[in-house]
Amino acid sequence: MVLPIMAGLAGTVIPAFSNGAAGVSKLLEWQGLSKAVALSVGTGLASTGLALILTILILAAFAGTPTFSRIRRGLAPLLSVPHAAAALGLAFLIAPSGWIARLLSPELTGWQTPPDLLILNDPWGLALTLGLVAKELPFLLLMSLTALPHIDADRRLTTAATLGYGRISAFIFTLLPDLYRQLRLPTYAVLAYGVTTVDMAMILGPTLPPTLATQITLWMGEASLAMRDTAAAGALLQLTLALLAITIWRVMEILLKRLLVHTAQSAPRLPHLDAPAALLARGAAAVVTAMLMFGLAGLALWSFAGLWQFPDALPESFTFRTWASAAPALAETSAATLLIAVTATLVALALCLGCLQAEATLHLAPTSRATILLYLPLLVPQIAFLPGLQMLALPLGLDGSLGAVAAIHLVFVLPYVFLSLSGPFRAWDARIATAGATLGASDARIFWRLRLPMLSGPLATAAAVGMAVSIGQYLPTLMIGGGRIETLTTEAVALSSGGNRRLIGAYAVLQLLLPALAFFAALTLPMALWRDRLLMRGLE
Amino acid sequence: MHRRTALRLLATLPAFAGFSTKALAAEWDSILSEAKGQTVYWHAWGGDPKINDFITWIGEKAEERYGVTLEHVKLAATSDAVARVLAEQQAGQTEGGAVDLIWINGENFAAMKSQGLLYGPFTDTLPNWPLVDVLGKPATVTDFTLPTDGFESPWAMAQLVFEYDTERLKEPPQSIDSILQWAMSNPGRFTYPQPPDYLGTTFLKQVLYGVMPDPSVLQSPIDDASYEALVAPLWAYLDRLHPALWRAAKAFPQNEPALGQLLADGEIDISFAFNPGRASAEIAAGNLPDTIRTFVLDGGTIGNASFVAIPFNAAHRAGAIVIANLILDPEVQARAQDPAVLGFQTVLDLQSLTPEDRARFDALELGVATLSPADLGPVLLEPHASWMTRIAQDWSSRYGVAQ
């Protein structure tokens, strides 16, 4: 994990400080710098905070209830939506000429032409924050779901309820500390992503100035190549910002923990919080699900649309032309996308299981340094090390092949797979292994016959997360693939520069479909495998 | 430079014509046989499905006629390919490069040429080169005032045209000044792509043509001493225009397709594009209503050409040359001009074609929204590339960081 990142960073540091650090001074001269920095950190912190609060709220209000499985079924497939597709769908939904306005116009609004309202690309980054929340909430929720069964959630909640605690206070005082321990690194990854996102910020974020990450991408794309060193300096600043945001978050964590401990000592039961919290949680879940689903449905509809003018709620005519003309390319890129994703995910699963099993049998405690190293690829902005890495891959002739792309995907897939798998794996009750051993089973037999089957739910989820992460990779595929390896995502981003909603719609549908199939398998496979063993069906 | 021009003059002398034709034919044969079986990686912007389909079609022709396989590497920005070649040069990779052919012009070309990243001159070896209208369309050999020197081969002519919906706008404003007047009395219904996007800077250059007392200075590199005074009318114009723009200039569309999408969504009433056939092609594809028409400004609009160039270290140079030649084939050019396909203007001199080839162009239906060549009016040359860079920079410091 460390090697490619360090190598890549070196490739970034050198141009930033060459020519007497010209890149750094040009970066500091840029007038938009302070605003871009504030935007990056602000939208990152705000969206992560909101997404986490909503996640906790939904869990606190509904964990273990029937509503919860409905929310879970609604949100889990949305995790697989690539960021760019989600952003495009959202943009079409909320723009003044978007679907919502079209549904209401002209009957309710009297608008014959779209109103001149600054909804997208607003200078405060509100649309971007909203988009990030919608995208990260399902991820955090799914990460919590794999953790909940292993912190004995149901029993603790029941105990607290008998003591007169309301659901909300019971959850926050008894479960949250343990839950958050497992959620911490995913949250940092979400935060780092929020601060450094390029694809979402390009579609939803402000442009005068844009966020720092977007501006760096624009500098890298400048024809004269004169801004490359500025971009490199910007990439280093971006790295600093990601670390800064995590530090701010860490400080907040400590403060909130003190507050929580302090409040818990007076043991407030707060049962009257439950009803409004449930309402809020239900509302938030409904809004997020609806936004993502309708946004994507809008894109899907565009892929079949003939002429579709404002203020028509539906297209004037429908056509298969988009799909028909794109079919050969779609089939080819889908195949390449799947091949890379499956390879990277399988290798990642094998490596993670190997690590975790070694940790368990040798009784190694995972040091925090080792954990941070593993998550480095998620915390270091891609734009800070990928260009440098590409420079190194070139002379070795390593770039441009499916294998090289799968290898670089592994760098990003592995941490997420480990993230989803390690919690449940470590929380697996070791007494079962002891019982197995007393019956004469070898370590290998315990691993294959007890541990793995019992973890089939988390395993399937981890695989699905891995697939989704791989399918969504843009910059690594482009840079290490030398532009020759086309995946659904590289195609969709290339197309989104052309703004063709019809074709983007077609790609988005497939981008959604492939990981959604993986998630569907993750949900149903354990159920099918363990039809007769209720507690082993995973995810519950 | 001078030696190359002299050589070209020599080659056109009748006494040498027989010899050079023969030599060229032999050279071409060897290129063809070397190209056979090669796979050419053409790095080209991949944002428009119509263009992507056209490139796929060229690939089929290349396979069929020359046994050359064409792979379109779809880019989000041309500079990605430039950066790639630069990275290879810095890594010391002088052969076997990943990029065989690039769709390029203007700044990217200037950057690659000045850094020695291009192979050439090669256009003189192309059998179809004599068909190119280098005299009538000087933009085929001049890229943003920079002579191409045979380092890139043109494939399409472009000219700025404005698009509007006759349903909403009866009399479009036809000068830079009347656009300002119209925008101020119709707030929120006009905008332009955010510089440094090329269409955005093209609009600024078009404004310069409209507000400068003597636009001929645009043909020379900017002169620092007089620059501020020369462009002052541009900023004065924009200061008045911006409050009346779409979203009051607090946001801008990113590029040409995004601007076109605003017209299609009815968010603005006047848009513009660098392709006179774009509106007709979009109508034909069902993306725009058939009430859209185009117009140009009094005194003319900026025009230029798109080119293909070959990197110095291209792995499949012969194949790339064969593709560059194929693109100049009258059949390919006529197909590109068909508004049902692309609606691009040809780079060829129709007078130099055989009657059968000319008939291909005569048979084209230009499309409801496309102006006839006569109505397109005069073509204004692109200013020197230094104007674009400087104006885009100054625009960013004036307007690029919100008020």
UniProtKB/TrEMBL annotation, chain A:
Main location: membrane
Entry keyword Membrane: yes
Alphabetical list of PROSITE patterns matching this protein: ABC_TM1 (PS50928)
Classification via SUPFAM superfamilies: MetI-like
Membrane topology, record value: Multi-pass membrane protein
The keyword Membrane appears for this protein: yes
Similarity-based family: Belongs to the binding-protein-dependent transport system permease family.
The protein's name: ABC transporter permease subunit
Automatic annotation (TrEMBL), chain B:
Segments passing through the bilayer: none
Signal peptide: 1-25
Presence of keyword Signal: yes
Keyword Signal listed: yes
Alphabetical UniProt keywords: Signal
Coiled coil feature spans: none
Classification via InterPro entries: SBP, YnjB
UniProt-recorded name of the protein: ABC transporter substrate-binding protein
